[in-house]
Each structure stands twice: as C-alpha cells, then as structure tokens.
Amino acid sequence: MNELFLKTEDNIKIAINHYQTGHDTVVIICPGWFMTKDSRAFKTIAGNFARNFDVISMDFRGHGRSGGFYTFTAKECKDLDTVVAYASEKHNKIFIIGFSLGAGLALMYAAGHSELYGVIAVSPHARFYGIENHMWHPNAWIPTLFKKFEPSRWFSIRPASPFLKKINPIEIVDKINVPVLFIAGAKDKTVYPHHTKELFDKALCDKSFKLYENGIHAEDIFMDEKQDSFNLCDEWIKAQL
C-alpha cells in the first residue's frame, strides 16, 4: 500500500492509500463524516476488497491526512473528481463504494459521470437535513465507543459550516446511468434505512437493493456482516464487468 497526495481544482490536498494488487479494476472507497482511510474499519474494508481488485481509499477534505475543511457534501465532489482522475490514469474499470455521507457523494458524482462501471452506496442519505442522527441510541453510540475508539482520528476532523448550499442525493439519483447497489441496515439510527429505499425507488438505472435486518450504520454493516457483505459486493462488481 502506498500513501499518495493529490491536489483538487480548488487547491486542497487529498490523501489516498493505493493498494496496487495488479488488477485492471479499481474500487475507490469513500468514508463518511468522521471516518478516515486509516481507521481500523476502513483498513479492514480496503484489505478485503484488495483480495480481488486494486483499491484506492481516500480521506475527504477536513479528514485525516487531507487538507482543508469538511463542507458536509457541498464541495467534496471535487475531492472525488481528483481521485477518479488519478485512478483513470492507471485503471480502465472504476467502481466507487461510499459509506454514509460518502455514499451520498458517490451518488452525486455518478449522476454526471457515466464512465464509471458502478457505484455501491452503503447507508446513503436522501436529504442532508433529513438525517435523523439519533446519537443517543445504543446502535449509534456503542459502535463508536467500543468498536471505533480512535481519539487520534477524532482530533483529525476539521469541519466547515454545515449550512453551505448542497445538493441532496434524492434530487439527482434519477440522473444516474451506471449500475448501483444500494445497501442499508434495518437498525440504523444514524441514517434511517428509509433514505436508502427512497433513493432506490427513484433511481432509473440498473439497480439492486440489500437490507441487512440486523445491520446498523454504514461501515458497521461491513464489520458485523464481514463475509456476507464482502461476498455480496464482490459478486455484484464482477457481474458488471
């Protein structure tokens, strides 16, 4: 794995981990708010995908080793555009898998980029201001406290105003022309699963939907349902090739 630094069109440094495993297909991993490419969860996720694909895991602006301030999806598509441009120099087949706000960004990006081979959206939000984020619920705070206790990561987060003008994924999901796999957890108390289902219902592309009945939020689905979730994504990606 090599860590590299890219520069966006608005001059923000974006840090990536590139797992070069000799494959023509690459999976770009987009963490959500408060998560980074170097967190335990995303290193595990990257390692699993790297068994069958090249992998690029990224830090959005305002997170981890990247520069700038996080704008809660207002400007982060520029980060993704920079990473996809880098990936396209080395790979012919590009997939994006996003988690939480990262999933929303993946959908927003895909709406204008039909050259992608597909998107996997895990716990995406339909509307930013409709996110429930019931942080007091055990399904929300217990994983953070006991499974993702990483103070160094927490202190690397630099938010900008959450009130900047932004696009809601529900506004553009019907413009996506590439295949999308939507994944949600029925017990998610951060971004309730109705967001994912609403996006799936409105999408006009080749689409699939998977609801994990015992799943909670985003990367936690992949940590709790390791074998099944990775097999699902692996088979889905290969079906698009």
How would you summarize the topology of this molecule?
Elements: E1 2-7, E2 13-19, E3 25-30, H1 40-49, E4 54-58, H2 77-88, E5 93-99, H3 101-110, E6 118-122, H4 138-147, H5 151-154, H6 169-172, E7 180-185, H7 193-202, E8 207-212, H8 219-224, H9 226-240
Parallel strand pairs: 3-4, 3-5, 5-6, 6-7, 7-8
Antiparallel strand pairs: 1-2, 2-4
Q: Strands across the major sheet, in which order?
A: 1-2-4-3-5-6-7-8
Give the low-confidence spans.
Answer: none
CATH superfamily heading:
Alpha/Beta hydrolase fold, catalytic domain
Shape assignment? globular
Number of individual domains: 1
How many beta-strand runs?
8
Average of the residue pLDDT scores? 94
Task: Please identify the oligomeric state.
Answer: single chain
Descriptive notes:
- It is a single chain.
- It contains 9 helices and 8 strands.
- 34% of the residues lie in helices and 20% in strands.
- It has an 8-stranded mixed beta sheet with strand order 1-2-4-3-5-6-7-8, sandwiched between helices.
- It has a single domain, classed as Alpha/Beta hydrolase fold, catalytic domain (Rossmann fold, 3-Layer(aba) Sandwich), CATH 3.40.50.1820.
- Helix 7 (193-202) links the parallel strand 7 and strand 8 (207-212).
- The radius of gyration is 16 Å and the shape is globular.
- With 241 residues, the protein is of the alpha/beta class.
- The chain has helices at 40-49, 77-88, 101-110, 138-147, 151-154, 169-172, 193-202, 219-224, 226-240, and strands at residues 2-7, 13-19, 25-30, 54-58, 93-99, 118-122, 180-185, 207-212.
